[in-house]
Amino acid sequence: MFLDSLAESVNGSLFQAVFQLLVFDNGGMVKKALLCLAMLLPVTGCSSVKTVGDGMTVGSAGGGIYATPIAAVGTALSIGADLFSPGGSSLTQVEMVEKAAGKWGTPHSAIETAQTIKLKESLSGDVLAKLSTTIDRAKEEAKTGHFQTNDKSAYIALLNEYDRGNWITITYPIENTSEKAIKMWCNKATYQCMISTASEHPDLPALTTSAATLKKSLNGATASFGSFDAYEPNLSKVSCGLIGGVSPFMFGEKTFAGMVKKNLLKEVVDASGYAPDSSIKISGKLTKIDISVLRPEWNFGMELVSTNGKILSVQEKYRFEFEFWNNHDKCGQIQDALPAAVKDLTEKIAKNPGFAELFRP
Questions:
Q1: How far apart are CA 31 and CA 132, in angstroms?
Q2: % pLDDT > 90, the chain
Q3: Which of 140, 163, 223, 230 could make an S-S bridge to 359, C-beta 3.0–4.6 Å?
Q4: Is 262 found in the same domain as 133?
């Protein structure tokens, strides 16, 4: 009778039900479930929430802003499962944070988008100082994976989502600017973060299978790039039958070697293998580049030399099909195939086990 009267004094049927469950919860399972729910509330109980990327939302809580996975319910429940394992062992909040931070792995480099740089150039005085300080903070957090969120549960959920291979977005408020905030986008696959303005959705880099293979082979080794040239200095045109030539000009490059260097550098950057101040420097030379109108195909020969004394030579053919309805413009189609041919060459180089050897001290 005492319990019934006490339950009736609790305002609301939901609270009454919870109260009775707690009273008769001999095994303690309800208390554990409620504790999991309490941990979930700081993650999902944002005062304002909006979608910012695949599977992510961002919201504010207590004056701070942090990113939260939409699937935070599952994350919080998994945290609860860690806390209350069948054996009865539990992890403290500090241990859980350390476990989550350990998933970050290799330090990330954060680069600013063109729009972010433009925003900095438009500001001055204290506002510029605040923005610069915030960007420096974001870059430091990218290195460590320790984000200064208001809530440890949100932090753990953030890194759990990162560990699943999703893009995570951290938002940093900036007062007295048109943008109001900057964002940092990070992904496990690239080991690279992008710092953007709040109003833009940057072109997020994607890790190719070749860059993923290279990253694994490098195992943390880095190098810088030296000069790249061809068997003829500054080679910028190759003949195409009797009617003309093919050039990289229309693709924004002055020379074929420059085009190869740009593509190969992207593979190395995506694989976290580029360090401009590295004592190891890799230079390249196109030993062969020609085309065949009859097949059709691009033929490349490439030699890469490292200051560690090692050399890698690569031969590659890129074949493709002519469009039958455009048979009169075969040279034009060969030129159109140049970007894909160079990409094929640099991906083959990145996958070659000998390429990683050029990075070794």
A1: 46
A2: 34
A3: 223
A4: no
